Amino acid sequence: MSKFQLIATSAMGLEALVAKEVRALGYECQVDNGKITFEGDAHAIARSNMWLRTADRIKIKVGEFKAKTFDELFEKTKALPWEAFLPENAEFPVSGKSVKSKLFSVPDCQGIVKKAIVERMRHHYKTNGWLEENGPLFKIEVALLKDVATITIDTSGSGLHKRGYRTGQGEAPLKETLAASLIMLTNWHPDKPFVDPFCGSGTIPIEAALIGQNIAPGFNREFVSEGWGIIPTKVWDEVRMEAEDLANYDQPLDITGTDIDHRMVKIAEENAFEAGLGDLVQFKQMQVRDFTTTKDYGVIVGNPPYGERLGDKPAVQRMYKEMGEALSLLDTWSIYILTSDEEFEQMFGKPATKKRKLFNGFIKTDYYQYWGKRPPRKN
């Protein structure tokens, strides 16, 4: 089975997590800004789409080369083995981006790459007319950075954050990939209690349940590359079978999501049901200041309102203060809060054990980590 150069794209700041997941699947990889590159066969394409919780997309790298002129871009694109990927009737739109490059006109770059592929395909398939483009979809991207063109084909289709369970959402939904990352950056294990006191549409608790039972995040959806001849159907069947075999549906979980808004609680319940986790996650309406528990050694992960809009900030900071007071008694619990408010620690009432810079969409945030006491060692 032929090998492909693959790229798992990543949000800024999450590259190390994506790389850890790629290595856990058994592939050596290199880490760069926003991307993790590795080599693999058709199984690797299917498995990485099925299993990577924190990556945005999986792309095939068709070629990478220096291009300072349009002629160079055309000839070097045309020299790539497009017939190894695209059938004669492939539909192949070309998108592009250009950063710090002489070829800065993205529409022109897209047009030239398209034309070069068409010429290569016509020559290979011995046709003079139009290419029909009524077959499977191959989304091609030309990305220019400092005069180096990287040409890729997207294997995912919809971004990998689209798990297929979100029936509804609130105003500022957290991406599923970021939610999974927040959980994977904690010390949570499936045998510990887990609480999200700002659950919104339920993304963090649902991702925790998927992680807790080792359910593949892509199990509930389809990928654009499932329609490609270069990946046999039996590969997808085998990868889905593997995902089914590795899921631990018997793992008991103690996961709770609470929110001040009863409508969001209802949406969260519907989303959990859609994900097949209806009975596994408990949702209830509650304000964070009312949170109490008699359990020990749990983990709290929250993405509260940030007060980004003018006028919201005083109310949000008051809520941070109330949260700090309510959670101050939980000395065995570890608490992880994502917010863009740089005064969070003052409001919460104590400095974090550790902070990590992350982006929530385009908002620069900090992930404040408060580590609880360790459980006593079992003899």
Automatic annotation (TrEMBL):
Gene3D superfamilies: 3.30.2130.30, Vaccinia Virus protein VP39. PROSITE patterns: N6_MTASE, THUMP, UPF0020. One of its GO terms (biological process) is methylation. The keyword RNA-binding applies. InterPro entries: DNA_methylase_N6_adenine_CS, RlmKL-like_Mtase, RlmKL-like_Mtase_CS, RlmL_1st, SAM-dependent_MTases_sf, THUMP_dom. Keywords: Methyltransferase, RNA-binding, Transferase. It comes from the Bacteria. GO terms for molecular function: methyltransferase activity. Residues 44-155 form the THUMP domain. Pfam families: RlmL_1st (PF22020), THUMP (PF02926), UPF0020 (PF01170). PANTHER family: RIBOSOMAL RNA LARGE SUBUNIT METHYLTRANSFERASE K/L, RIBOSOMAL RNA LARGE SUBUNIT METHYLTRANSFERASE K_L. This is Class I SAM-dependent RNA methyltransferase. It comes from Cytobacillus stercorigallinarum. The lineage of its organism: Bacteria, Bacillati, Bacillota, Bacilli, Bacillales.
